[in-house]
Design goal:
The structure holds 3 protein chains of 3 kinds. By secondary structure, chain A is an alpha+beta fold. Chain A is globular. Chain B is 28% helix and 30% strand. Chain B has 8 helices and 18 strands. Chain B is α/β, with parallel strands linked by helices. In chain B, strand 14, helix 5 and strand 15 form a beta-alpha-beta unit. In chain B, the strands form 4 sheets. A 7-stranded parallel β-sheet of chain B has the order 7-11-6-1-4-5-12, with helices on both faces. Chain B has a 5-stranded parallel β-sheet with strand order 15-14-16-17-18. Chain C has one domain: HUPs (Rossmann fold). Helix content of chain C is 27%, strand content 28%. Chain C is built from 7 helices and 14 strands. In chain C, the strands form 2 sheets. In chain C, strands 1, 4, 5, 6, 7, 8, 9, 10, 11 and 12 form a 10-stranded mixed β-sheet that branches. Chain C has a two-stranded antiparallel sheet with strand order 2-3. In chain C, helix 2 packs across helix 6 and helix 3 packs across helix 4. Chain C is globular, with a radius of gyration of 21 Å. Classes of the chains: A alpha+beta, B alpha/beta, C alpha/beta. Chains in contact: A-C, B-C. The interface between B and C is large, with 87 and 82 residues.
Chain lengths: 591, 319, 267
């Protein structure tokens, strides 16, 4: 790959198709790994989903061991501890395929992501020797204990304390963690607590630690097949050797690991969405009303087309991000001291994109399950059909790993912070965008070029972000960080730009290699997605404009937004019908 | 000369009905090429089967020897090759049973013959006979040409009506030169599936169950007994270990063509349909109104099989 | 006695893909079709791996076809096979050619057992194993299965269904035949073709996949094996199968009986 991109750089520079990694770039090994994950889901998980839903004791842990035997827990761990040290693209691919495993997908993600990665990134050799081998084989399951009854989105607001014993050999942990995924069967808990009520610190806590008790299963709306319990610490005696990372640096662990967690969640929900989608199109083909399959109706086809386009964008976005991170991580010498320090910084660089992946993909899943229920009509509301469960299982994804609101706020918040620090030339670019606003461009579309209309609008969309963000900064200056309504609107603009561009770049990259009909399907997906995403983006930009400007400034801003978001979607209906036909014909996500 | 040789299948002197379907196919080839049809019966103590086949108007050669007692391809193949040469056969035909599928390609190598398996229909004439056979689990039908001097094929018995009895047949013994000591294959045992019910492939009525039985084949078996029917199953039911392997109807199991096929709790995956779509009348009983089985069933009843099947039995008894 | 096992691996259309004939009958529509290892071959690979685990030895996997078949060979290597042979041939094959090419591989490799899927799920021929045995003059045991179900303890423990004697000279093979289950004893070397319920194949583990990258796959041009490569089973055209039309939905059991009795006259 040609260039190394900085986080959020996509908003101010132009990327080309050669700069992105796409699902079509997977190697043969990566495809085989995906196949293994598919088989694992089909043969090991799907047949026991009902039993999982009823919380059959020992079943989830047994499945985790089977996942370990298949090597699905080894992806992110270093080779020295029985891992495979594979890249993020592979990790995301496995997460995506495991996303079809229903509630077990959540158990898997909690174990292999937030459960294991803190140890991988911050553990000492002794800690890894002791625990990592057990986690990568699935012999032990892992859980991550950050949330407390009064500390949800305010993740650092926890009250759990750690007090050094007089002999200096142990910490005594006191407090209650809740909503702990894998709580009922996890063997190792990564627990955050304040040393001396001050220094936020992570601890590795074994299940058998005296003073640790696991509370009862929560009764949940969805993902009922996963375990969610409180974990209570009453003078739980943890050896000082089990402090993870440095005392007082727990927040770094908590947040950095969440970056990967969010990114992984973006992949996993994309997999879940593909499964629900498949159910929906199969039903549309099978269900007859008025004497014909409902798949023949435009009302259904339009849903199918819109969902297909959304899935295409979600995939494009997730794997582009995987490529961005992998390119950066590949520059770090593996044997270097402080490897994981640099590694962490490499991931932190893309905190914005990680948040975008979480928000965008979880909302694509929300759209998919909602419409799959709708396609099922009354049957969608009945438990005997899977649509109902998909619908319930989806909801948590917009809540955990940082609510979508927290993640949205993080996007412009981080961008502005980096701009202030001079890491991102936002101001300069915003000025340029403002100038462009005043000087109408005379570029003519060349319709013979593939994706000419999308190329034409993309630059304008980025300028839209810049001028609106510029206006917001001008209006609120430093206080902008507290204007959440404005920040949410800016986030929506930034998110849609990333999604539109990712789908476009992927399409540009893969099209020359595709057979003609598939190429037309991809072009249709880009058109359908770009159209709806530009609509959403423009609405968010106008919302922000009304929030931050008035009078002439507002008029100029609105005029600019109108011009910058002008997208020629000629042939939109034909594109939707084509895309729907491709999905309905194959009865699955077709691209 | 375009003579056609039919390889018969028998067990303990009883001719298998599938052979008569192969005879029909052989006669169709002969009609198009202008050759004669003869048959070969292999076994030990198989005279009665040979007589039975001859009663269908075909000259039969009987290779009767202890070494042929069990259906071992290694022992039978050289006899088939020798008989084909002796008969001046340019076509060798058998039924696509487990015996025929095992034996024919092995015998064909000795004759330098190309083989088409599971033939459904015969097209073309004279020098160009085209054989229709399923590919991709029956999703596609291929029209196949065989380009060797001697040609061989196996026929799917359900696709060819059994030949009728006719005069003019004969039985001629044939010397068997296979040396038992030379064989690398030894028959150990055959665990026959003993059943009061008729063979799946021969039954006039088949009652079959799938995933929807949830493992309880009781109601279906009772209905089958009332009807003198065989019991079949979908692959899902067999894979789940609910019923024996040889109950499986489908592309990878048995292909049946009864007068009546009752599919209860079977969704109708294409692999299953491939094994029963030759039935004259198909009845589907399934809770799921959208199950694909209803797309091929003559009569569909959307109902729970655990209620519908006992109710049907009562209705039957009422007459 | 350690066993040397040669197993065939064919690249076929994924059975989950929708297969239909092109309108002009010249082939199937390949748009959107995925490929995978023939499921029967997958069972053969699994059986060979179990035999190796029990007796020691080597599992060699072989594929005949285009460069793309490398993917399926790698998949077999990822399951645990030791090395691969890819006989390169881009044209059409038929069972006669396949068995002749395999015969040449057997001459070079001298395996104790050749294991093949009973048929490939693309052309559904069910011939190559029998023809190979004939060419070699070896015993054959087709449609290998086992008496225990796929849910049995023996299967959970991944025991082989084919029972090879400790001296490596004979094997007992259980076969699925019409009307029952037959057991044959074959002298080795022999050819075994496998049926659906012999075993449940393992899936490739991730470490297996990564190790497979480094395993040897030797490419052999088909033309170098001295086999006449003109097919004698030639597909002239492909047709759609006749479709059965949907009938009627009946309201209840009473109507069903009436229809079957009075209309269809089958009861």
């Amino acid at each position: 790959m040609a260039r190394l991109f900085k986080g959020a750089e996509y908003l101010i520079t132009e990327a080309t198709k050669d700069d992105v990694f796409t699902p079509e770039d997977f190697s043969e090994e990566q495809r085989q790994i995906a196949h293994t994950a598919d088989q694992f889901v089909q043969e090991e998980v799907t047949p026991v989903l009902d039993r999982l839903e009823h919380q059959e004791p020992g079943l989830a842990a047994a499945l985790m061991r089977k996942a370990g035997e298949a090597g699905l827990l080894m992806i992110d761990a270093p080779e020295a501890y029985g891992g495979l040290a594979l890249d993020k693209a592979t990790s995301m691919l496995a997460a995506e395929r495991m996303g079809a495993a229903g509630a077990f997908s959540v158990s898997y993600a909690a174990h292999s992501g937030i459960g294991t990665l803190p140890l991988v990134y911050y553990g000492t050799e002794a800690q890894k020797d002791r625990y990592l081998g057990k986690l990568v084989t699935g012999e032990w399951s892992a859980a991550y204990c950050l949330t407390e009854p009064e500390a949800g989105s305010d993740a650092l607001g926890g009250k759990t304390t750690a007090t050094l014993t007089p002999d200096g050999k142990h910490y005594l942990l006191d407090g209650t963690k809740q909503f702990i995924t894998n709580g009922s069967f996890a063997d190792l808990f990564t627990v955050f607590a304040r040393v001396d009520k001050k220094h936020f610190t992570a601890f590795l806590v074994e299940r058998t630690t005296p003073g640790l008790t696991v509370g009862p299963e929560e009764k949940k709306l969805g993902i009922k097949g996963s375990s969610t319990t409180p974990v209570v610490f009453e003078g739980a005696k943890v050896p000082v050797e089990n402090v993870l990372g440095e005392i007082g640096k727990g927040h770094k662990i908590a947040f950095n690991v969440l970056n990967v967690g969010r990114f992984k969640l973006g992949a996993a929900v994309t997999g879940a969405a593909k499964l629900a989608f498949k159910t929906g199109v199969a039903y549309a083909n099978a269900r007859k009303q008025f004497g014909v399959p409902i798949a023949r109706f435009g009302a259904i086809q339009e849903k199918v087309a819109d969902l297909t386009a959304g899935l295409f964008a979600a995939e494009s976005l997730v794997y582009r991000l995987a490529g961005l991170i992998d390119d950066r991580l590949a520059t770090i010498p593996k044997d270097a001291a402080g490897y994981y320090e640099a590694y962490q910084q490499g991931i932190e660089e893309y905190a914005i994109e990680c948040a975008i992946a979480k928000v965008f993909c979880s909302e694509v899943l929300a759209d998919v399950v909602d419409e799959v229920v709708q396609i099922h009509g009354g049957y969608g509301f009945i438990q005997e059909y899977p649509a109902e469960k998909y619908y319930r299982d989806e909801r948590i994804n917009r809540i955990f790993e940082g609510t979508n609101e927290i993640n949205r706020l993080l996007v412009p918040g981080t961008i502005l912070r980096r701009a202030m620090k001079g890491e991102l030339p936002l101001q300069r670019e915003a000025m340029k965008a403002m100038e462009a606003l005043m000087t109408p461009s005379l570029d003519e579309l060349d319709p013979s070029q593939p994706f000419a209309a999308e190329r034409a609008v993309l630059g304008g969309l980025k300028k839209t972000f810049l001028v609106v963000a510029g206006a917001a900064v001008q209006r609120y200056m430093d206080a902008l960080k507290d204007e959440q309504e404005v920040l949410l609107a800016l986030a929506d603009v930034a998110i849609q730009v990333f999604a539109i561009e990712s789908a476009l770049l992927r399409a540009e990259k893969i099209s020359p290699r595709l057979p003609e009909s598939r190429r037309a399907d991809v072009a249709a997906a880009v058109k359908v997605h770009t159209f709806s995403a530009v609509e959403k983006l423009a609405a968010a930009a106008r919302r922000a404009a009304f929030y931050v400007a008035e009078g002439d400034t507002l008029t100029v801003l609105l005029g600019g937004i109108r011009r910058f978001t002008k997208y020629d979607a000629s042939g939109l209906l034909a594109a939707k019908r084509r895309l729907a036909a491709a999905a309905l014909e194959g009865e699955r996500y077709p691209l | 000369m375009s003579n056609v040789l039919v390889i018969a299948e028998q067990s303990r002197g009883t001719l298998r009905k599938a052979t008569l379907s192969a005879l029909t196919a052989a006669r169709e080839v002969a009609r198009r090429t202008g050759g004669g049809v003869s048959a070969l019966v292999l076994g030990s103590g198989a005279g009665a089967a040979a007589e039975e086949l001859a009663a269908h108007g075909v000259p039969v050669r009987l290779a009767d020897a202890p070494v042929l007692a069990h259906p071992l391809a290694e022992a039978h193949a050289p006899v088939v090759a020798e008989a084909a040469r002796a008969a001046g056969a340019s076509w060798v035909v058998t039924a696509a049973t487990s015996y025929g599928k095992d034996l024919l390609p092995r015998a064909a190598v000795a004759l330098g013959a190309a083989v088409a398996t599971e033939v459904l229909a015969i097209a073309g004439d004279g020098g160009e006979i085209l054989l229709r056979r399923p590919m991709w689990a029956g999703n596609v039908i291929a029209e196949v040409e065989l380009r060797t001097a001697v040609k061989a094929f196996s026929v799917r018995p359900t696709e060819f009506a059994p030949a009728a009895r006719a005069p003019g047949g004969s039985v001629t013994p044939m010397a068997v030169a296979v040396d038992a000591a030379s064989l690398g294959t030894r028959f150990v045992e055959l665990q026959e599936v003993k059943s009061e019910r008729p063979e799946l492939t021969d039954a006039r009525v088949v009652v079959a169950g799938g995933r929807g039985t949830k493992g309880d084949f009781g109601p279906l078996s009772a209905l089958a007994d009332d009807l003198g029917a065989a019991v079949g199953a979908s692959r899902a039911a067999v894979d789940a270990g609910w019923v024996p392997n040889d109950w499986q109807v489908g592309q990878t199991g048995k292909v049946v063509a009864p007068d009546l096929y009752v599919a209860a709790g079977i969704s109708g995956a294409i692999q299953h349909v491939a094994g029963m779509k030759g039935a004259k009348v198909i009845v589907a009983i399934n809770k799921d109104a959208d199950a694909p089985i209803f797309q091929i069933a003559d009569y569909g009843l959307v109902a729970d099989l655990f209620q519908a099947v006992p109710a049907l039995r009562e209705r039957l008894k009422a007459g | 006695m350690p066993l040397k096992l040669l197993v065939t691996v064919k690249r076929v259309e994924d059975p989950e893909s929708r297969i239909k004939a092109k309108p002009d009958g010249s082939g199937i529509v390949t748009d959107g079709v995925n490929y995978k290892m023939n499921p029967f071959d997958e069972i053969a690979v699994e059986e060979a791996l179990r035999l190796k685990e029990k007796h020691g030895g080597e599992v060699v996997v072989a594929s005949l076809g285009g460069a793309a078949a490398m993917t399926e060979l790698r998949a077999a290597l990822a399951m645990g096979a030791d090395r691969g042979l890819l006989v390169r041939h881009d044209g059409a094959l038929d069972p006669g050619i396949v068995s002749a090419l395999l015969q040449a591989l057997v001459a070079a490799e001298r395996p104790d057992l050749v294991m093949l899927g009973k048929q490939a799920i693309d052309d559904d021929q069910n011939q190559a194993g029998q023809m190979l045995a004939a060419r070699l003059g070896w015993p054959q045991a087709t449609f290998a299965s086992k008496k225990e179900s796929l849910e049995s303890e023996a299967e959970q423990k991944k025991q082989p269904g084919v029972a090879v004697a400790a001296d490596g000279k004979r094997a007992l093979v259980v076969r699925e035949v019409d009307g029952g289950v037959e057991t044959l004893e074959v002298a080795l070397p022999a050819v075994v073709t496998v049926d659906l319920r012999l075993n449940k194949p393992r899936f490739a583990s991730l470490p297996g996949i990564m190790k497979a990258k480094k395993k040897e796959v030797r490419e052999i041009p088909a033309a170098s094996l001295g086999v006449e490569l003109a097919p004698s089973v030639v597909v002239r055209r492909l047709l759609d199968p006749p479709r059965r039309q949907a009938g009627v939905k009946v309201a209840d059991v009473a109507e069903l009986w009436t229809r079957l009795h009075a209309e269809a006259k089958v009861l």
